[in-house]
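Re: the request from the purification team.
They wanted to know what the chain is likely to look like in 3D before they choose a buffer screen. I agreed to run a prediction and write the result into the notebook, where they can find it.
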Amino acid sequence: MDYNQLFTQTWHILRRTPLLWVLGFFAMSLNMVGHLVMRLGSRWASQSILQQADLEQALERLLRQVAQPGVLIAGVVGLTCWLLLVWVVLTVGEGGLIGTTAQTQRGQPTSLGSALRQGADWLPSFIAIDTIVFFPLFVLLLAIMIIGAAALFLAIILGAQRGDLASVFLPLIIGGVISTGLGLFTIPLSLATIAFRHLAFRAAALRQTGVRQSVRLTWQIIRQKTGPVIVITALIFGISYLLGTITTLLLTPFIFIGGFPTFDALATPSAPSPIFSPDHLILTFIHVGLQWGLQSCTFVIVSVFWTVGFGLVSSEQAAVSSGPLAVSSGQ
């Protein structure tokens, strides 16, 4: 396989299709809203507590309020709904990126409305694929949690019955060793899951197949073209890591400049500093805007790389399989 095609095709698509960047900003929009709310909310909460005359009582009062069953349930439900909404917008945006990239490869016209409609149409299939693909990782994490909880429970029971430290530490050590051993598998399994997910999304979208057929086709491509899939996956993960490192380096100064709450309220409680000073607000919005732009660009670049990579490996897989696959690789 000519891996230069992965970079040349991706570059031409990114250069010729401004719509991709619009879709990237759309996909990451709710992420940035959440980041802005968390940044301003944490600033407000921390400064409000620090400006209290009795810090210990303020913390205790806050903990009592948060520990109320109604507050906990509302918080969990609200956070779950928000995360699901973020995931839906992100996934619809990714579907739009996949469709727009494929249309650009075929020389077909693209539009924002059609891209979003495609992403919304593919959303049920993407949900089902995520459920199937992430199930092994979910089972592994659940097993680690169950083993850890069982070890802790057994340590408490044996410690209460026998009253010696050996009875307490032995289950914890055994459970910790087993959990650590299983935990070592989470990293390679997570990487494999992410790669399979990206390829399965594109199989479902570009082949217009059902969920099971998409998963089966993805596995067939990986099995028949293992080498190219590994190389392309490694290249894309390397690019993602590089872009993430650049983003972190560019955003780090904003964390230290105006990102942490000042402690003037402790030193001069009679004249506390303002919670939201103009400088802090300006820095916060610059930080969020820069993060939005950098993460959106990273999301677009990585998505196009996956789509082009899928076209390359699937076209080669079609050359050695009995039936041709119906998506142009853009060559």
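For the purification team: The chain has a mean pLDDT of 82.
Please add any questions underneath this entry.
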